[in-house]
Amino acid sequence: MNGAGIKNLGSMRLSGIAQHILFWIGVFFAYTAIYSVKTTFWIAFRNNLFYTPLHMAYYYAVASWLIPRFLFTGKYLRFTGYLLVVMFVITLLSRLLDIYVANPYIIQHLPMDDWDRIEMAKATVLSRLLDMVFFINAFKAMNMIIWVAVVIKMFKLWYERKQAALQAELNALKGQIHPHFLFNTLNNLYALTLTNSSKASQVVLGLSDLLRYMLYECNTEQVNLQKEVLMLQQYVSLEKLRYEERLDLNFYIRGDLQNKQIAPLIMLTFIENAFKHGASDTVGEAWVSIDLHVEGTRLKMKVSNSKPENAAAAAQKHHGHIGMQNVRKRLDLLYPSAHQLKVLDDEDAFLVVLELTLQTEHKPEPNLIVA
Asked: Measured between alpha carbons, how far apart are the two ends of the chain, in Å?
């Protein structure tokens, strides 16, 4: 791990420790405010100096030992048994603090008119310790805040695991894009080499640029929109080399692409499919039209292509449709309520319309796109 990684890890740990410290300070003053109603602020403050460590020991025993070791591993009976034991021991310790620390100090420093408390102070330690009314009150006091904290921790763990699972699924989906794209482009290169076309070298150079972008630019959740569109232009140029005059191609780019971000490779599949399922299967002249329009933070992309005469046979020839399945899943994960995808199958053309909300970046950037 490099120095920056260690520094970030250290700051994350300090941040977590700071959150715990602030939480327990909040718990301390909350209990102080509650108990000061029947005593005074300073008496409650003094007594809570003894009770708060007990609350902390109870919480960390449950959250850091019982839950990870027994609940998360499916040992539910052992978890329940140990939890009941911990609850009983903590409540017992709380009652001992009542008897030996809190009540004597209250009786000493307050004019007493609570005769029940005075009479109870005269009883034996064992009878006071096991008095059910005071025992239940101690149990409630020890569990009032602790289980709120445990629920918060459980929700946080659930959220972190859910995010980790989503990220793992996204990485798996994005990992399938690279070999899928490479497979199709190598097929194009193979077709050119069969005819000894001089354009094969241009395809190799273009493919090298695209793979460099995929390897070094696409390892983040969001990429620069201009660089993404530039990559699309390079891909389209490679396809135009393959089809030459047989392909009628239009690629329109409108709007301001600067200072915008988008999920990497989210648009490539639709353009790739236009060539694979339309142009490559069309006998005679084929056409592909791409219209990319950005207005504010809203992107709208229309991709249409000619439809082969025997569309069913053409669809059967291309196995799996992995690219389209992946891009739908990625859109659902990355833009759950910020995208619309329409796929229209007309009599003589396919049409895909994608709309999504872009993220913005604040640093100025040069214009990279050639319209």
From this structure: 43
